[in-house]
């Protein structure tokens, strides 16, 4: 619960995290394409 409060207090940190997550997701998708295709 305290972690959630920290995220709400620091939106910049949350945004940066989501950006990194998006990058990781893109990489994972590309790897899947290479594996399947």
From TrEMBL:
Domain of life per record: Bacteria
Biased composition (Basic and acidic residues): 1-10, 19-37
Sequence segments annotated as region (Disordered): 1-37
Name of the protein: Uncharacterized protein
Organism (species): Cyclobacterium qasimii M12-11B
């Amino acid at each position: 619960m305290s972690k959630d409060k920290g995220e709400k207090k620091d939106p910049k940190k949350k945004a940066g995290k989501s950006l990194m997550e998006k990058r990781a997701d893109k990489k994972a998708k590309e790897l899947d394409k290479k594996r399947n295709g």
